[in-house]
From TrEMBL:
GO molecular function, one term: undecaprenyl-diphosphatase activity
Subcellular localization: Cell membrane
Native organism: Candidatus Kaiserbacteria bacterium RIFCSPHIGHO2_02_FULL_49_34
InterPro entries: UppP
GO CC annotation: plasma membrane
Protein name: Undecaprenyl-diphosphatase
Gene name tied to this protein: uppP
Protein family per UniProt: Belongs to the UppP family.
Amino acid sequence: MTALQAIFYGIAQGLTEFLPVSSSGHLALLHALNGFIGEAAFTFDIALHIATALAVVVYFRADLKRLIYTVFRKLGRLPVDRRDWVLLRALILATIPAAVVGVFLEDIIVSAFREPLMIAGVLLAGSAYLAWAEHRVKDLNTEKLTIWRGVLIGCAQVLALFPGFSRSGATIGAGMMLGMSRSDAARFSFLLALPIILGAGGVKIIRASSESVPIEWSIFLAGGIASFITGLFVIRFLLNFVRSHTLWPFIWYRVALAGMVIGIVVW
């Protein structure tokens, strides 16, 4: 892989990690087209995912600082902001379902659904899911985040283990179905991405290091920087976009991509 190709992959990851179109599906399709497979591709994907996680840290640094502050105030038995305390507990509990299922089933699911036709099918399933969320959503959603809603959104995040479904799509859609506004659901979705991406990345790094996978640091750095910068812009874009727009443009994009993949494979 050249540095230019790595930058292209990084931009693709930064765009698709946070938009509800599935980064894993896009990367899998790109790998299939370019013949970039095996442990080298696996390790490169880890670097791109960690780069987008760092974009979340930078963009939401004020929120994360408040959450850390809340932890220390709780440990010191001092009063805390109720909303921050609810958010912190919701994030912790919402992380558990996908983490547990991922540990035991991720490799099985990814192996079973890595073929382009399978990814296309999951893209369509995710499109139907988001369409249903848009059908259920009201013009002015007033429900706020609760611990129970957070747990249900975390359960929906398990769907992201299927390449092509979309982690952000699964969690934003679940939030909308539970009565949250698109912008509130998106904000929680991005914060929820952090422990999952970093946790999964850490596990995969340990696995890759134990298998002595060769790492081209210049290539990883080029892709990672591109993914980080693109991710920052996309987070800002989507949070602004969903304040006044629906998710239908992304739904139709998913349908079109699935149709294109099916057409290429079949014909």
